[in-house]
């Protein structure tokens, strides 16, 4: 039986406003033990920023992390999926866009989760190395 995105996604996505500094976004990621945050403008999704974005688009470009906003380095207008979408649809989007995570939004734009490559690995092949890594406790 095919599962839907809401069955495998991580609920309660962490968000930051688009004018949040890179330094603050890094602290949010550290404190939540996650590698990305969704970027919003008055609650509306406008982007996604990853720990890699902070390094490659921020630090490596000599941007001041205290002064540079996440909006300056995030991926804008990210692809999204709906909670009821089939996981195969999420996999296809990830494959086509070489993505590791997708925000999950309802039809009215409410952010309800994030589905990651790890979430899908656990779903499709629970015995795989990637699934084991994704399911491991942080810091283990």
UniProtKB/TrEMBL annotation:
| Pfam families cross-referenced by the UniProt entry | CBS
Q: Which domain of life is it from?
A: Bacteria
Protein's UniProt keywords contain Cell inner membrane: no
**PROSITE patterns in the record, alphabetically?**
CBS
Q: Which residues form the CBS domain?
A: 9-65, 74-130
Query: What CDD domains would the database entry show?
Result: CBS_pair_HRP1_like
| Keyword Nucleotidyltransferase tagged | no
Chain segments annotated as transmembrane = none
Q: Which UniProt keywords apply?
A: CBS domain, Repeat
According to the UniProt entry, where is the signal peptide? none
- What name does this protein carry? CBS domain-containing protein
Species of the source: Streptomyces katrae
């Amino acid at each position: 039986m095919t599962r839907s995105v809401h069955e495998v996604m991580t609920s309660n996505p962490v968000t930051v406003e688009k004018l949040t500094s890179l330094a603050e976004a890094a602290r949010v990621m550290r404190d939540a033990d996650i590698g990305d945050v969704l970027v919003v403008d008055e609650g509306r999704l406008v982007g996604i920023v990853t720990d890699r974005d902070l390094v490659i688009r921020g630090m490596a470009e000599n941007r001041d992390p205290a002064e540079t906003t996440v909006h300056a380095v995030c991926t804008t207008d990210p692809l999204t999926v709906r909670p009821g979408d089939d996981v195969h649809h999420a996999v296809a989007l990830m494959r086509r866009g070489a993505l590791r995570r997708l925000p999950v939004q309802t039809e009215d734009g409410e952010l309800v989760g994030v589905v990651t490559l790890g979430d899908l690995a656990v779903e499709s092949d629970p015995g795989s190395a990637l699934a084991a890594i994704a399911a491991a406790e942080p810091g283990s």
